[in-house]
């Protein structure tokens, strides 16, 4: 019965319009829209990857081998199941024009490439013609950035290894580029047969082969994958098919999307503060209405249900607006988004992400409105006439506390489930909770300090008025510090994480990193290579080691993934080396290195940190597939491997006898003075044209470019959170306009001029903004440290430029919000205001 009456009361209340609830609607709509838009874009990319899976992959399925070509059995199996089989060889080399050299990622293809899709060239021509013989030399195409670097135009000649090629066209687009993964150099495409006589595919050269298959219609891809893995997985095979044509891209999109959703939840938390403040302000404005209802006999439950239904209906409206915006914005911006994406996307309305965003918004509204609504039950009618909220107890009834906690737990559970990243979800929740507690404590402390400061600031009326206003209940100091502080905290944490990640990659390396990596150094070249460098006074250090690639397939004769899960060491092939003597600088943490003349069964030294993560112990056996051959060895030692120096670091090292006879090359790092780098490269490339040089600084810059996109995406999410906080500031400033009007009238009556009053308003905004910025800075630094240290495992230092920007941003935001509503109080006539208060 009470619910029916409450529904009638709520319906009548809603006739009054949205006065007092605009900020609630805006906060919920913005937070939900951000999450819905991120989810829609992610779903669009995933749908595009599925729809264009075969085109992205370059076939219906792909078999990938490292360091070797497919053997006869593998070729026979592929020929038996596929309509067509296309072979691609992928490796790095140096393109040379005179004295200019550029690192390039070579794709050597056969006559069937591409099985699916087309290659776009400038000038437009068939790929078959572009890769044919031109003026007695084999043709090749390359990306514009590499051609510009080498000063090439179509028709010009360049060298790869010991062979000359003609640049026939500029590569504008390759249909399977997304499946190629991260590359250190721009792409060059040529025929595999053209590599004959180039000295580029000598035994031991680092390369991979990919066999693209077109399959008969109706082929069961899952069953075919199972068959291929059962036959060849121990040979080092990696399988990909059109169900997920670009797995690396898909995984990246999933992780980035999950992270952005969590950033969006931070924005919803900021919006929740605004929602709570709006409800509290609205209830305070309904003092006379609630008092009248209580006087007429309305029960506590009826009053609570009345405003719960009213706020619930308005929350649903805000969520609906947010869902609509989140669904339509990606559709409207689809041409711009697609132009920036390296993969296809199918933009349309996807119910799943929209429902997810709506659930997040609904639970956020429930958690943040229940508390202020519940407190009205415990306020007596007589007290309501004097003060609607502050006269009540600090905490609502236990049942409402339990419901709030249950709603929060459900929100976190769904966030972890939807995102698939429980650990990151818990970290985010802990960070938001900690920041809110810190900001709430700071708001209380600011009010206490302002109250005391107003008593001792005699002689400075402007400051005294500002401090007195901050310490009062009507200035909304708590809402300002919570909303703006949390938004700035998210932005500060993102800035600190981004800065430290960039510093870890670019900032610390120049002092310790080598100048070049040289790969594909043949056995008969290593002596001359070493002699050239050791005789150069500009070279401070050389590190060289044998280099093979292998895949760990079994641990203690059990499939490796059953033992160590999806650890990154098991995801693809890893570098393998051998050494008789323990290399200089090696630190054994457990076990012992083998004797220099050891000739027994294979022994392994494994990286200590990764061994701990995988659960390995001394005496365990590992089976490593190298060039299609299984080698099983026993772990004899663990050692420290430091990848942060950009030097040579192998997860797995073996005794020389274990790899006897396996074709391989050498890898080397050279530490030299910057002025000597160019001459070293010219001398080595001229003498050994098959050697590939990778300049460490160029590789670092390539990674930094990828990080720039990630940082931009996270910054956009953080900016949405900050915008929500600014909306809450506007709401707090708007709700306090009445109090400021009366305050200004009193001050004008006592002789204060408009300029002094306006300065007082500005000063209180600056103080609150500075306080929110300082607290947010502390929370952001703490959050950035935690993520950098425990999730990204990088060293941490404060990025002071970003930190100072956060503080200044807090001051600016509160000042703008405060001044936005300062005109009416300053310009109102005192007599009219004071007469209305009589």
Give the gist of this structure.
This protein is an alpha+beta fold. The chain has four domains: 1-60 and 250-420, no CATH class; 61-218, no CATH class; 426-513 and 696-838, no CATH class; 539-672, no CATH class. The radius of gyration is 34 Å and the shape is elongated.
Structure, explained:
- The chain has 838 residues and is an alpha+beta fold.
- It folds into four domains: 1-60 and 250-420, no CATH class; 61-218, no CATH class; 426-513 and 696-838, no CATH class; 539-672, no CATH class.
- The chain has 27 helices and 22 strands.
- It has a six-stranded mixed barrel with strand order 2-3-9-6-8-7. Strands 13-15-20-17-19-18 form a six-stranded mixed barrel.
- Strand 7 and strand 8 form a beta hairpin.
- The protein starts with a helix and ends with a helix.
- 44% of the residues are buried.
- The model is unreliable at 387-391 (pLDDT under 50).
Low-confidence stretches: 387-391
Number of strands: 22
Give the N-to-C terminal Cα separation.
Answer: 41 Å
Q: Given the C-alpha coordinates, what overall shape results? A: elongated
Rg over C-alpha atoms, rounded to the nearest angstrom: 34 Å
Amount of helix:
40-55%
Q: How much strand content do the residues show? A: 15-25%
Report the biggest beta sheet as strand number plus sense, adding barrel if it closes.
Answer: 6 strands, mixed, barrel
Count of discrete domains: 4
Structural class comes to alpha+beta
What average pLDDT do the residues reach? 79
Q: Which strand order do you get reading across the main beta sheet?
A: 2-3-9-6-8-7
Helix tally equals 27
């Amino acid at each position: 019965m009470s619910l029916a009456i409450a529904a009638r009361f709520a319906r009548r209340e809603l006739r009054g319009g949205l006065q007092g609830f605009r900020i609630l609607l805006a906060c919920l709509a913005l937070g939900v829209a951000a999450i819905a838009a991120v989810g829609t874009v992610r779903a669009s990319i995933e749908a595009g990857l599925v729809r264009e899976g075969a085109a992205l992959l370059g076939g219906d399925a792909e078999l990938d081998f490292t360091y070797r070509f497919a053997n006869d059995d593998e070729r026979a199996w592929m020929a038996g199941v596929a309509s067509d089989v296309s072979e691609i060889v992928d490796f790095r080399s140096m393109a040379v024009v005179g004295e200019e050299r550029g690192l390039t990622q070579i794709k050597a293809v056969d006559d069937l490439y591409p099985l699916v899709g087309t290659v776009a060239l400038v000038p437009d021509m068939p790929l078959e013609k572009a890769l044919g013989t031109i003026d007695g030399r084999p043709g090749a195409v390359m990306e514009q950035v590499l051609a510009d670097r080498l000063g090439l135009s179509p028709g010009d000649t360049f060298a790869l290894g010991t062979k000359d090629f003609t640049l026939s066209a500029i590569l504008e687009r390759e249909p399977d580029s997304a499946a190629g993964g991260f590359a250190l150099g721009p792409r060059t495409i040529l025929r595999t047969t053209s590599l004959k006589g180039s000295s580029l595919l000598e035994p031991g050269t680092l390369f991979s082969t990919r066999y693209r298959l077109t399959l008969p219609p109706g082929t069961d891809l899952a069953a075919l994958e199972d068959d291929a893995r059962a036959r060849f997985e121990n040979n080092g095979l990696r399988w990909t098919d059109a169900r997920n044509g670009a797995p690396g891209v898909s995984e990246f999109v999933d992780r980035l999307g999950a992270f952005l959703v969590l950033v969006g939840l931070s924005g919803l938390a900021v919006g929740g503060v605004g929602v709570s403040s709006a409800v509290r302000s609205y209830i305070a404005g309904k003092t006379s209405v609630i008092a009248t209802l209580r006087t007429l006999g309305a029960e506590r439950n009826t009053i609570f249900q009345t405003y719960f239904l009213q706020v619930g209906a308005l929350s649903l409206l805000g969520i609906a607006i947010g869902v609509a915006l989140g669904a339509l914005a990606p559709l409207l911006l689809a041409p711009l988004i697609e132009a920036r994406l390296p993969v296809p996307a199918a933009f349309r309305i996807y119910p799943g992400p929209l429902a997810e965003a709506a659930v997040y918004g609904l639970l956020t509204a429930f958690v943040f409105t229940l508390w202020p609504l519940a407190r009205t039950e415990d306020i007596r009618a007589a007290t309501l006439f004097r003060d609607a909220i502050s006269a009540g107890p600090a905490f609502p009834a236990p049942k409402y506390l339990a419901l709030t906690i249950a709603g929060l737990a459900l929100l976190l559970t769904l966030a972890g489930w939807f995102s698939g990243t429980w650990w990151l979800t818990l970290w985010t929740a802990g960070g938001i909770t900690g920041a809110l507690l810190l900001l709430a404590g700071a708001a209380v402390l600011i009010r206490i300090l302002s109250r005391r400061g107003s008593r001792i600031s005699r002689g400075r009326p402007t400051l005294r008025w500002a401090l007195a206003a901050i310490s009062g209940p009507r200035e909304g100091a708590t809402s300002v510090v919570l909303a703006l502080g949390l938004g700035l905290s998210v932005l500060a944490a993102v800035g600190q994480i981004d800065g430290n990640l960039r510093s870890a990659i670019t900032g610390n390396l120049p002092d310790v990193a080598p100048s070049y990596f040289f790969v594909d150094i043949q056995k008969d070249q290593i002596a001359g290579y070493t002699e050239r460098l050791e005789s150069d006074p500009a070279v401070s250090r050389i590190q060289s080691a044998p280099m093979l690639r292998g895949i760990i397939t079994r641990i203690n004769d059990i499939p490796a993934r059953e033992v160590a899960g999806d650890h990154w060491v098991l995801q693809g092939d890893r570098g393998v080396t051998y050494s008789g003597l323990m290399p200089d600088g090696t630190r054994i943490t457990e076990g012992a290195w083998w004797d220099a003349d050891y000739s027994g069964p294979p022994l392994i030294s494994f990286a200590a940190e990764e061994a701990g993560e995988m659960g390995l112990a001394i005496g365990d056996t590992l089976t490593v597939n190298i060039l299609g051959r299984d080698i099983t060895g026993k772990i004899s030692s663990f050692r420290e491997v430091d990848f942060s120096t950009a030097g040579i670091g192998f997860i797995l090292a073996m005794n020389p006898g274990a790899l006897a006879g396996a074709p391989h090359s050498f890898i080397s790092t050279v530490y030299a003075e910057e002025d000597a780098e160019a001459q070293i490269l010219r001398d080595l490339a001229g003498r050994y044209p098959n050697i590939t040089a990778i300049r460490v600084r160029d590789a670092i810059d390539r990674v930094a470019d990828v990080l720039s996109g990630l940082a931009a995406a996270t910054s956009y999410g953080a900016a949405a959170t900050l915008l929500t906080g600014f909306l809450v500031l506007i709401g707090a400033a708007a709700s306090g306009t009445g109090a400021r009007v009366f305050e200004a009238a009193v001050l004008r009556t006592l002789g204060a001029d408009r300029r002094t009053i306006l300065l007082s308003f500005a000063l209180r905004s600056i103080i609150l903004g500075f306080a929110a910025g300082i607290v947010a800075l502390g929370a952001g630094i703490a959050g950035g440290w935690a993520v950098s240290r425990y999730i990204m495992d990088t060293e941490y230092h404060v990025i002071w430029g970003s930190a100072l920007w956060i503080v200044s941003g807090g001051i600016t935001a509160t000042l703008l919000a405060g001044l936005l509503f300062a005109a009416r109080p300053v310009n109102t006539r005192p007599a009219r205001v004071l007469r209305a208060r009589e």
